[in-house]
Specification:
Distance between the termini: 17 Å
Strand order of the largest sheet: 1-2
Radius of gyration: 15 Å
Structural class: mainly alpha
């Protein structure tokens, strides 16, 4: 099933079988090289903001939009495969200074791990994609 020209996760072949060198990114429970902890770091920040500040969800969404604006060109560039695209995008995100939300006034709250997790959330929101159809 395709939606808006993007592949859905169930359309992709099982990467554990087709690309065994990427297996450690897909493990459950996560290994130190897994991407899953980054997602949960960002999710934890989202929940804390929702519970602690007024308009926490809106401020969190503003952070995602700000980060998207800083990394979308990196993610849209040509790469040999989706893993290289993901790594380049996450690296760009980790160093990108966020300023699009009042939360950005507290930089110690938004470390590299949370920024990387925000990238995975942007993929889930269909704003970014790691693997293009032709890869």
């Amino acid at each position: 099933m395709q939606e808006h020209g993007l592949l859905q996760h169930h359309d992709l072949p099982d990467l554990r079988q087709t690309r065994p060198q990427h297996r450690h990114h897909l493990t459950d429970p996560p290994t130190p090289n897994s991407e899953r902890p980054y997602f949960y770091d960002a999710e934890g920040m989202r929940r804390n903001l929702r519970d602690v500040i007024e308009n926490g969800e809106q401020e969190f969404d503003a952070l995602k939009v700000d980060l998207y604006d800083g990394i979308c060109d990196t993610c849209a560039s040509d790469y040999a495969d989706g893993l290289l695209r993901m790594r380049a995008t996450l690296s760009q995100a980790a160093g990108f200074p966020l300023s699009g939300s009042v939360i950005a006034q507290f930089p110690s709250m938004i470390k590299a791990a949370e920024k990387k997790g925000l990238c995975h959330m942007l993929v889930n929101d269909h704003m970014l994609e790691w693997v293009h159809e032709n890869e």
